[in-house]
Amino acid sequence: MNTLRKHLRKLNEIRQTTLFPPEKITVIILLRATKHGLNYIAGLDRNLIWRFLYPLNARIDNDLRKWDVIEAEVMYPSTEPDRPEYVKIWKDTVKRIGRVDSLSERKNIITKVVEGGEFLHRKPCRKTLGLIRPIRPRFYLDKFGKIKCHFYCNHKGCKGHRMIVKDPEVTKENYQLIEEPYFLLAFKIHPSRWLLVSVIELTEQK
């Protein structure tokens, strides 16, 4: 079965490259992380729709940061039914084409996509990425030296959330300086839980 799938996938790739030019997608990066040699990139496309780019072994410029604008070629098929934000790309097609530097422009983008925290309390959840503005976030170090955050969302009856901060830009040197953050959360299917993958600040850098 696996051999058949690989064969069909290869035929689809040949079909796309020879008969149909790959489509291109433009994404504003709001999540950029590397773990065990794998790249995690997610952000918003031109229509402000969340996109998570995979495969994770795609060759990615190490200098890419949040708010960089990248372009990549979409591979056929482009999405997964149970993870609508996922977009499959050709491994070597990611390139930086710009950057959102204006603080006012960043605020304009974020205010258009920020949500309440209802999805954190919904089962089953039909999404894998969501942006919230946390209420009373408190960052701290646990006994193992990991950075965690306790916060509330605006869902009625929320009793609080406690998550490890997975954002590589949040370090032991700067986590106490974070003010008025927004949180990008990603849903992990196995085991099913939400992860705090990106902390987005809309204040002038100190």
Textual characterization of the structure:
By secondary structure, the chain is mainly β. The chain is built from two helices and twelve strands. The chain folds into two domains: about 1-100, OB fold (Dihydrolipoamide Acetyltransferase, E2P), CATH 2.40.50.140; about 115-200, OB fold (Dihydrolipoamide Acetyltransferase, E2P). About 15% of the residues lie in helices and about 35% in strands. The strands form three sheets. A six-stranded mixed beta sheet has the order 5-3-2-1-4-6, with no helix packed on it. The radius of gyration is 18 Å and the shape is globular.
What is the compact description of this entry?
This protein is mostly beta strands and 206 residues long. The protein has helices at 2-19, 103-113, and strands at residues 24-35, 38-44, 50-54, 68-73, 86-88, 95-99, 129-132, 135-141, 147-152, 161-164, 181-188, 193-201.
